[in-house]
Amino acid sequence: MGTVGRTGTRFSESTPTHLFILAFEFRNGKFVPVNLLPEFHKSKKTVCAAYSWLSPNYEPERTVKDIPLPTGYRRLESPPGSFQEWLRNLPLKPEKTPILLYTGELKPIQYLHYAIIEIDIGSEDLQQCADIIMRLKAEYHYSRGEFDMIHFKFLNGFKFEYSKWKNGYRLNNSQNGWIKTGDISDDYQGFTEYLYQLYYFANTKSLDSETIPVTTSEIRPGDMFVQGIKPQFNHAVIILDVAENKDREHIFIIGRGNTPAQDLEILKNPEGKSPWHRFKSGDSFQTAQWTFKKTDLKRFPE
């Protein structure tokens, strides 16, 4: 029998909000409590309350960290409860699941992905390449009750803060200020509405403007390749896992959304079999269907 759990909030206008998670696992004939925050429970039979979009009884067959490593490599250590660890524990859909567009139709190209992350797309063409990266960062902080950490820039430079949104503030008509029109709530439906507003007014260019460059030797899960300054076609992908060998040579797993909006896929490397990518000589870095510069490697500020 798997874990049973419940997430929720309790608040009033005069008191701070609190995220609480109650979870128990059936062991040796009785229910025992399990700790879900701030660290993520390791058992696959534990309902991962850290991934709020999943149904309460969902049990993943595998996660990102279950993807096999090449001989001679080990995964980089990640601090317990970190964004890096959270990304590694993202659940994967069953093997051979086809990749879908937001319309529910099959994506025409089905041979570039190694696996698909179990996360919804939505029914509109909104959750594209940069949007899914921002969503992952926001979902991580939401799962930990770190509401003040959820904020992103719009293309016009406006700082779009979830802490304002949950307290009932909404955008003015110019999308550059707040007006108090709603109720206080930090439930998941309201959080999802915040994300949809974000998708409308932020993009790859705005993501590029609020991330900081890192060198390839510093790469870690949660970093991203972002090209947001081209006049037309821009793109962004996120690093989901990183490993290294005894010579400190890195390999890494890439997650990608796209335009039109689609499932979050784990890309095969350009050789077409393994999901593990590596840097080669030169200034550029090749992924399926896109060439980045190594200087496009970015990170959210701490």
In short, what is this structure?
The chain has a domain at 129-203. The protein is 15% helix and 28% strand. The protein has five helices and 18 strands.
Helical amount: 10-25%
Describe the largest sheet. 9 strands, antiparallel
Number of E strands: 18
Q: Rg from C-alpha positions?
A: 20 Å
**Strand coverage percent:** 25-35%
User: Which series of helices and strands comes N to C?
Assistant: EEEEHEHEEHEEHHEEEEEEEEE
Please tell me what the overall shape is.
globular
Task: Find the structural class using helix and strand composition.
Answer: alpha+beta
Uncertain spans: 1-22, 24-28, 30-47
Short descriptors:
5 helices, globular, alpha+beta, 3-stranded antiparallel sheet, 302 residues, 9-stranded antiparallel sheet
Describe this structure in words.
Mean pLDDT is 88; it is low at 1-22, 24-28 and 30-47. Helix 2 runs antiparallel to helix 4. The longest helix is centred in the middle third of the chain and has 15 residues, at 129-143. The chain is built from five helices and 18 strands. The termini are far apart. The chain has a domain at 129-203. With 302 residues, the protein is α+β, with helices and mostly antiparallel strands.
